[in-house]
Amino acid sequence: MNSRQHHMTADRDCDNAPIQFSGAIQPHGYLIACSMPGWIVRHVSVNVAGFLGMPVASMLGKSLDTLLPEELMHSLGNAATTVMMEPGSQQRIAEGQLGTQRVRCDVCVYRSGALLHIEIEPNEANPLRGHDPLALAQGMITRLAGTTGLDEFHDRAVQQVRAMTGFDRVMIYRFLHDGSGKVIAESRRSGMESYLGLHYPASDIPQPARELYRRNRLRCIEDANYTPVPIEPRVDEQGRPLDLSQTGLRSVAPVHLEYLRNMGVGASMSVSVMCNGRLWGLIACHHRSARRVPMDMRSAADLFGMFFSMQVAVREDARDRDYEIRARVLHEELIHALGRDANPADALARRLGMLRRMVPCDGVGAWIAGRWLGEGSTPPAAALPALVEALAAKGTREVIATHALSSLLPEASAWAERCSGVMALPVSTTPGDYLLLFRRELPRSITWAGDPNTPFQTDPETGKLSPRRSFEAWKQEVRGQSAAWSHAELRVGERLRVALLEHVLRSAEANSEQQRISSERQGLLVAELNHRVKNLLALMQSLVMSSHDSAENLHEFVENLEGRIRALAFAHDQITPRSNNEARLRALVESELMPYRQGQRRIEIEGPPVVLDNRSGPALALVLHEMTTNAVKYGALSVDTGHLRVAWRVDEEKCCHIEWTERGGPEVQPPHHEGFGSTLIRRSIPFELRGEVKVDYLPEGVHAVFSLPGDHLRVDTVDDRATEAIKAPSGGLAGQPTVLLVEDNMLIALDTEHVLQRLGAAQVEVAGNVVDALEILSHVSVDAAVLDVNLGDETSLAIADALHSRGTPFVFATGYHDRAMIPRNHAGVPVIRKPFTPDSLSESLRLAIGARPPDAGDGPHVAPGSDAVN
C-alpha cells in the first residue's frame, strides 16, 4: 500500500469511527447513568468509587438516592422533569459540598436515550466561577450587536470570548463548501502563533466529530495530557455501549489529543455555530497549558454562541434573500417573455444574456435536441456532446453543479481557463436537454496549516493513526476550479429549471394535436371546476352553520368564520398547479403562529420538511387554526410568558406525528362542553384522513398529538426552514384618503368598500369596469386605488397606467397565485391575493402610499400577507 492509499484509509477510518461510544470520560469529573423512574444506577465512571468512597460494584443496581444527599436528589428531580420532557436539553445545578472530601461541585443533568446522565465536576476554587452566565452573555451580546460589517462582527466576537474565558487564542473556524475549514477571525495572546487565514483539510474534523458538534454545542478538553477514566460496565445487558453524544466529559479520540499536543495546545474549548440546522463553523479556543472552565462560564459561552449563530444566519439569509428577490424579478420577466414565443429553443437563445444576470456566470448556453446555442465563455463546440453525455449519465432530473468541471469530465482540464465550473439545468423529461451555465477558472493561492495531503500518518505494521506534526504554513496553487456555486444560486437555478421544464412541456403539448387536447382539457376543467365549486359552497355552508351555532354573539360569529375561511384560503393557496397539488406543513404552521411571535412569548417550530396532499392540507389547516385560536384566547399565547412548541416527526411507517405542547399560560381546565371548534379538532383528522387525535388538557398547558397516515404526505429533500410566514400587520389609513376601488364582482366590491371605510377612507369610489373607472378619474381626485387585475373580459392595466402617469399610488388585487399578468412597468406595485384581510389590505395600501414610483428602480414591494414574486 502506497502513502496516498494509507492516507485515504486513514480518512475513511476517521469518518467511520464511533467516537460517541468511547467508553471513557476525562478525569476532572464523574459520570453516573441511571434508568428512570427508579433512579437505578446502570453505569458509572470508575473514579466515582474514590469520590463517594465505595466500590463500583456496590453502586450498580442501587437507587441513586442511597448514594447522594437528599437535597441534591431534590434538585436532580426537578432538573430531570425538564430534560425528560425536552430531549437534547441540559440542566445545570450548582451544589454545595459533595463526596468524601466535601468539595464544592457543579452538576449537569441530561437524557441520553432511555437513561438519565448526571455529570459531577468538582469546582471548589476556580477564579472564573461565580459569574452569572446570563449577565456575562448579555454583556458580550451588547458589545457585539453594535457591529456593522462582517469582519468587525467576527473580530469583536473572538475578542469577547477571549476576554471572558482567558484562553490564549480564540478563533472563528468556518467550514467551506468542500468540507475544509478556514480561520476567518482570531484573537491571541502575544507570543502565540497566528492561524488567521489558514485552511485546514476536511479530515482534520471528520464526519462523526462534525455530527457531535452539531448535536452538542459545547466541547471542552481541560488537559490534552489526561488519562481516560473508563466506564463500568462498558456495555449494557444487550451488549450496547453507553452513548456519550451529549456528555461534556466524554473522552475524545487519542488521535485528537495527539493532534492538540502537536499544535502545542494544552487545553481547548469549542462552541458550535449552527445556521439553519447545519454546522456553519466553530468558535475554537486554545490554551498553552491545562485550563479548567467551570460550568457557569461554559453556560455563558453557550448562550453567546447561540446568539452569534442567530446573527450569522440572519446576516447571511438577508444577503441571500436580496439576491433571490432580484433573481425572481428576472425569472418572471423571462418566463413571461418565453410564454409569448412558440419555439422554446429560439426564445431561450434570444434571452441567454438575461440568464447571466439571473445567476452570475461567464457563459451560458442551451443544448436542446442536439442543437447548441451559447454565448460568453463556453467549452469548445466539439466538447459539448461528451459533456452532455457525462451529465446524462448522472441519471437525475435535478440541478447538477460543480466548481471543478474536470472531476465530471476529465478532458475538461484542457480548456479549464475558459470553463472550470458548470451548473446544468435539465429542461426535458428525459436526460439530454440542458441549460448550461459556466464559470471561468479562478486561480488562487490557498495557505494550509500543514500539508493537506498528509493529514495522518499510519504505521504500516500496527495500523495506528497519528496526526501530522507540522502546522507550518503550506501554500498550494489551485487551478482548474471556478468560484463555487452558492446555496442561493442553486435555489434560483432549481426554480428556473422547473419553470423552463413546464414551459417546454406546454409548448410540446401545443404542437401535438393542440385542438383536440385543448377541447378535452377545457371540458375536464369545466367539470372539475363545477365539482370543486359545489364542494366549496357546501363547505362554506357547513362553516357558516357551525360557526353560528358555536358563537355567543355576532362579533364572535364573524371573527370565527373569518378566521376559518382565512385558514382554508391559505391552505388552498399552497395547493396550486405549481406545487403539484401539495402543501408544506411548515408553511401551514407558521401562517397560523407567526403573528403571535411578539413580546416575551416563545414559539418553537421544529420538524423535517413534510409535504401534504390536497386532502390533508385543508383539514390540518382548520385544526391548526382552532388550536391557535384556543391558545390565543385561553392558553399559552394569551400571556407574554407563554411557551408553545409545535414539533413533528415521521416514523418508520411514513406516518407524521404532530405534537402541540403549551406551557407558561393560565392553568388549564378541561372544557365543560364541546363546541364546534373542539369537535373539529377531535374529529376532522380521523374522519377525513383516517388519522388519530389525542388532546390532553393538563393543568400546565394543553398537549395534543395529531397523527397523519403516510399516504397523505411525503418527506421532501428540500429544507423548508426558510419558509416565509404571513404576519398580521395592524393600523389604518392615515389622512382619511379618497380611494378608487375597481372590482367586477358586486359582493366583493361591497365587502371591500366596507373594509376601506373601516380602515379610515373618507370616500370610496367604486367601478366595475375600465370605462367607469377612467370616467371617475376624470372628475375625482383620488389618493390611492385598489385594482382587481382581471375584470372579466378585460384587465385593469389601462387604469394602472393612468394612475401611474398621475403619480397616484395603487395596489393590485388578484386571485391568481403569481404575478404573471403584471407587466414589467408595474413590477414594483404591491400585489395582494384574494381573499385578503383588513390588516393585509391596510398594509398593502400604506406600503404603496409610502413607496417611490415603480420606475424609480426599486425591486417589487411586497406587503405582509400579500403576494411575493414566485
UniProtKB/TrEMBL annotation:
Catalytically driven reaction(s): ATP + protein L-histidine = ADP + protein N-phospho-L-histidine
Keyword annotations: ATP-binding, Chromophore, Kinase, Nucleotide-binding, Phosphoprotein, Photoreceptor protein, Receptor, Sensory transduction, Transferase
Stretches for region Disordered: 850-870
Response regulatory domain sequence ranges: 738-849
The protein's Enzyme Commission number: 2.7.13.3
PROSITE patterns per UniProt: PHYTOCHROME_2 (PS50046), RESPONSE_REGULATORY (PS50110)
Modified residues (4-aspartylphosphate): 788
Gene Ontology MF term list: ATP binding; photoreceptor activity; protein histidine kinase activity
InterPro entries per the UniProt record, alphabetical: Bactrphtchr_CheY, CheY-like_superfamily, GAF, GAF-like_dom_sf, HATPase_C_sf, PAS-like_dom_sf, PAS_2, Phyto_chromo_attachment
One biological process term in Gene Ontology: phosphorelay signal transduction system
Phytochrome chromophore attachment site domain sequence ranges: 149-306
Pfam family, any one: GAF
Protein name: histidine kinase
Species annotation: Alkalisalibacterium limincola
